TrEMBL record, chain A:
Pfam families: PD40. InterPro entries: 6-blade_b-propeller_TolB-like (IPR011042), WD40 (IPR011659). Gene3D superfamilies: TolB, C-terminal domain. Residues 291-332 are annotated as: Disordered. Transmembrane segments: none annotated. It comes from the Bacteria. This is TolB-like translocation protein.
UniProtKB/TrEMBL annotation, chain B:
GO terms for molecular function: transmembrane transporter activity. This is MFS family permease. Its main location: membrane. One of its GO terms (cellular component) is plasma membrane. Residues 29-414 form the Major facilitator superfamily (MFS) profile domain. It comes from the Bacteria. It is a multi-pass membrane protein. Pfam families: MFS_1. It comes from Allocatelliglobosispora scoriae.
Length: 332, 420
């Protein structure tokens, strides 16, 4: 093996470089060719009606509850939500940056806010006035490499922007709490457009917090409640409940009754890592990924009975545009 | 299976020869190792740059799942480093061990494709990648010390670290280029990264040579017990102790960048640029600092580096503000890396017996890495109790204490025990 001359080795290195470069370039070209065909633009509206808003193939789409017909818009959104004619869309600004777009009922851009990190959750208050979002921020955590979250709220009426909840005064079980490791995610608004619920994680625990936007305060209500979603009647919170309090074991979709603080696990047996959305006071929709990784939207009764039903294939980030539920179609 | 070298490395005895302080003293082997590191770092940083995007947006993993994977990622290296170092010495196969390490990491890039959406699969693949890194680092540094005359070690490590960090600097750019060219396909990034990593292995096989020991004695296998006695030698013990103390006083990069970001209310979009700024400073300063270390003494440059760290910590909540503060802090932080990372290895080389060189290097690197881990936890606790300003000043004070300890450990006995 010592026979190889310097020249011979340089030739081998050059050949290897060429072959490897050709392989990489070839794969890149094949991958580029597989790029999904741009979605045809259709007229999509967020005005209230018996329809389901989803993100499908990374595009905002609306599914008619009666006919099941899907209308896909040209607007790219990885997370969507809408209420009372106000839409929220988290979309890529560049391959490595995202932004929040506030939409009116005809998908016209009302406001664009650059987002730190990767989109995770978004919600609009029932009145359409408040918009909230959560992103994952890399490198923001002191234990190297860990992810942290950043949650912001926009008041579309006054234009007031709360870029992060981290400046709010936190009380845990009535005691003031200050720590470097606080993270918030998954805001859901109450009817008064001031109070909201969210998840607070600190010291390895995850709490349900009740926030007051005007007072800039947050107080914990209970533990192990993530990604809360307030029912239309304001009495219950749907959320993901970490199995045995340990998120690495997965999450069970559950409902918390705010009056009794009783938790009811729902009929979905799979681990659900999503912020649930109420379709009406009795039904909850959520995204579930199959083993192939493709997202599907399911619904399940909010009282723990029944069984999950496939609501929309190849879709995620569900939100109803209608106070009239999608039940009719599910039962037909 | 050895391949002949392209040029004789300067490993001839240097006694009696005039000290040459020219760049020529850096052997072809060091450049070859530098080229392998450069190429491999392009490959690995490509993946690091897109992995969060891939896991969270491509696979829709939750931060929790990402955290679990990341824990595996960092935890997997420490012990393996020691095992790899010992095996390299035992079988006198530093190049082979480094090659296995580089090879595992290369294959792991394809493993990311094969793992698909399975969190367990991805975790295993990332663990394998880190395993490869753990296996290769100490043999590589041992090879650098073995192909460089003692008086040129600072320069050799300086040049190597410069090439290494240049690769790390290019990696994210290449990844973004591939993402743009491939229509956002993460698969294309992984395949390209694999091809680049294979090229690194090819370069290693072709151009890096292991050291043939001229000694007449038949190879006596290194025993585990012998490896344990390494710490019985005073210089090794002192160096390992100093490395651990300094590691214990050093807080993680994440903290420093986070504090800078908070202090300056930087838009988080700019956040990654803090790391880029630091590596740019590191890249530019690594070779000059290495040369300086050979010229004025490695311990002095090491201490200078930690002094730069003290200043950087103090600047985090100091009188300066705005861009001057950012640039100065990142510059000092890069200077700290440039004056300490390779220089510590240059210090370690000569005090370690040749047959246990890899094990010794692995021991010092592992000790320092574990100390970092402890310091991060301690700093997190200090932050929680006293707030970031006080915590960063405590960290600065801790570094000062570690510097004083280092002076006593390394500088004073320098004449009798350590080469300049």
């Amino acid at each position: 093996m010592t026979a190889l001359s310097t020249r011979g080795r340089i030739v081998i290195a050059a050949l290897a470089t060429v072959v490897l470069a050709a392989g990489a370039v070839g794969y890149i070209r094949i991958a580029a060719a597989k790029e999904p065909v741009p979605v045809a633009s259709s007229h999509v509206t967020l005005s209230p009606g018996p329809r389901l808003l989803v993100s499908t193939g990374r595009h905002l789409a609306v599914i008619d509850s009666g006919t099941g017909v899907r209308t896909v818009s040209a607007l790219e959104c990885v997370r969507v939500y809408a209420a009372a004619g106000t839409g929220s869309c988290l979309r890529p600004q560049s391959p490595w940056a995202y932004e929040l777009v506030v939409l009116d009922a005809d998908l016209r851009e009302q406001r664009v806010i650059p987002l730190p990190g990767l989109p995770n959750r978004t919600r609009v208050s029932a009145s359409g006035r408040m918009v909230a979002w959560t992103t994952f921020v890399g490198g923001d955590s002191y234990n190297s490499g860990g992810f942290s979250t950043r949650t912001g709220i926009l008041d579309t009426r006054t234009g007031a922007l709360t870029s992060t909840l981290e400046g709010f005064a936190v009380t845990i079980d009535g005691r003031p709490h200050r720590a470097a490791d606080v993270n918030f995610w998954g805001v859901t608004f109450t009817a008064d457009d001031n109070r909201f619920y969210a998840t607070l994680a600190t010291g390895g625990k995850r709490y349900l917090v009740e926030g007051d936007l005007a007072a800039r305060t947050l107080r914990t209500l209970t533990e192990n409640v993530e990604c809360p979603s307030l029912s239309p009647d304001g009495t219950r919170i749907a959320f993901k409940h970490a199995v045995d309090g340990d998120p690495t074991k997965g999450w069970r979709l559950s409902v918390l009754d705010l009056a009794s603080m009783r938790v009811t696990p729902l009929a979905e047996p799979a681990s659900v890592d999503d912020q649930p959305a109420w379709l009406d006071d009795a039904t909850i929709a959520y995204t579930l990924r199959g083993s192939s990784g493709d997202p599907n939207v399911f619904s399940v009764p909010a009282d723990g009975s029944g069984a999950p039903t496939l609501l929309a294939a190849d879709a995620e980030s569900p939100a109803t545009l209608s106070p009239t539920p999608l039940q009719d179609r599910r039962n037909s | 299976m050895y391949l002949s070298t392209i040029s004789r490395p300067t490993t001839e005895p240097t006694e009696g020869q005039p000290r040459r302080r020219r760049l020529i003293a850096i052997s072809a082997n060091v450049f070859a190792l530098g080229a392998v590191s450069l190429v491999t770092d392009i490959s690995s940083e490509m993946v690091s740059a897109v992995l969060p995007l891939y896991l969270v947006l491509g696979l829709q993993l939750s931060p929790m799942a990402y955290g679990v994977i990341d824990g595996v990622y960092t935890g997997a290296t420490a012990v393996l480093r020691l095992v790899g170092g010992y095996l390299a010495d035992r079988f006198r196969g530093r190049k082979v061990m480094a090659g296995i390490g580089y090879g595992i990491s290369a294959v792991a890039k394809l493993g990311l494709l094969a793992a698909g959406r399975s969190v367990t699969g991805i975790g295993l693949v990332i663990a394998a990648d880190r395993m490869g890194k753990g296996l290769r680092t100490a043999p590589r540094d041992a090879l650098i010390t073995l192909s460089t005359p003692p008086e040129a070690l600072g320069r050799a490590f300086g040049v190597h670290r410069m090439m290494d960090s240049f690769g790390a600097f290019l990696g994210p750019l290449v990844a973004l280029g591939v993402l743009a060219a491939a229509g956002g396909s993460y698969d294309a990034v992984f395949v390209t990264s694999f091809c680049v990593a294979v090229l690194g292995v090819v370069l290693l096989v072709l151009f890096v040579r292991d050291r043939h020991d001229p000694g007449p004695s038949p190879v006596r296998a290194v025993r585990p017990r012998e490896a344990l006695t390494l710490l019985h030698t005073r210089p090794v013990r002192r160096l390992a102790l100093a490395a651990c103390l300094l590691g214990l006083a050093t807080i993680g990069d994440g903290f420093v960048f986070l504090l800078l970001q908070r202090r300056e209310e930087l838009s988080i979009v700019w956040f990654p640029l803090l790391a880029v700024g630091t590596s740019l400073a590191y890249l530019l300063l690594a070779a000059p600092m290495g040369a300086l270390a050979d010229l004025v003494g490695r311990v002095r440059v090491l201490i200078g580096g930690y002094t730069a760290l003290v200043l950087a910590y103090l600047l985090l909540f100091g009188p300066l503000g705005g861009w001057p503060m950012l640039v100065l802090t990142l510059g000092l932080y890069g200077l700290f890396y440039a004056a300490t990372d390779g220089v510590l290895m240059a210090l370690a080389g000569p005090v370690l017996p040749e047959r246990l060189r890899t094990t010794g290097i692995a021991l010092i690197q592992t000790g320092q890495a574990l100390a970092y881990l402890v310091s991060s936890v301690l700093f997190g606790a200090a932050w929680q109790v006293w707030g970031p300003a006080v915590a960063s000043r405590i960290a600065a004070a801790a570094v000062v204490l570690a510097i004083i300890a280092t002076v006593f450990l390394l500088l004073r006995p320098a004449a009798e025990e350590l080469p300049a």
